[in-house]
Write a structure and sequence with these properties.
Elements lengths: L3 E6 L1 H4 L7 H11 L6 E6 L5 H15 L3 E5 L2 H4 L1 E2 L9 H14 L4 E5 L6 H4 L8 E2 L2 H18 L2 E3 L18 H17 L4
Parallel strand pairs: 1-2, 1-3, 3-5, 5-7
Antiparallel strand pairs: 4-6
Helix pairs in contact: 2-8, 3-5, 5-7
């Protein structure tokens, strides 16, 4: 029997820079064509961070009543404005936000997706907003926090930092079609081999 899956995230989840709608939409298309049909909702919103996601998290889940919740958030939390002492969302608040989501989602299967690396030559600063920066050192700190939370709460965590190379990134931040395909395959394989789907 199919399951209902809510996938939360930012512009990478939403599918920026991919003609097929990104890794989450590829999952939707993949399971939507299977005999054991699952409903997959891509709830990625461009520029989302954990603060913004938390504000809509309960309502989105109450509206769709998912069996599985996949959360792919953190890259925009790790972004900093001007210098590293001014993150968009502090690490402490990021942790608090994730723990609140876990509490709100109790009774459902929760899976976290790790944060992808960036091509620093293109996003330090980002060309469309030159006071904002992404770097892999900061991403690694936020990714480690997600992993730590998952370990403490016995939740599944899908690693991503090792997956994408610079040539898999369209603009230094968002995966291109090849990058989204790599992400789709990693998430799909994890969900199938772990018995989630």
């Amino acid at each position: 029997m199919g399951k209902t899956i809510n996938i939360f995230g930012d512009s990478i989840t939403w599918g920026a820079c991919d003609e097929m709608g990104g890794w989450a939409n590829r999952l939707k298309n993949y399971w939507g064509n299977s005999d054991d049909y699952s409903r997959v909702y891509n709830l990625g919103i461009s520029s989302d961070n954990s603060d913004k996601l938390l504000k809509r998290f309960t309502n989105e889940n109450e509206a769709r009543n998912p069996d599985v919740i996949i959360i792919a958030i953190g890259i925009n939390d790790s972004q900093y404005i001007g210098d590293k002492n001014n993150p968009r969302v502090s690490l402490e608040r990021f942790e608090k936000n994730l723990l609140e989501m876990i509490m709100q989602a109790r009774g459902r299967e929760i899976i976290f997706i790790g944060i992808t690396n960036v091509d620093e030559a293109k996003v330090m600063p980002i060309p469309w907003d030159t006071i904002k920066y992404y770097d892999n050192e900061n991403i690694a700190i936020y990714n480690a926090k997600i992993k730590e939370i998952c370990e403490k709460n016995k939740l599944s965590f899908i690693e991503m930092p090792d997956l994408l190379k610079n040539e898999d990134l369209e603009d230094g931040l968002h995966p291109n079609s090849k990058g989204h395909e790599k992400m789709f395959l990693r998430v799909r394989d994890f969900l199938e081999t772990s018995g989630v789907i």
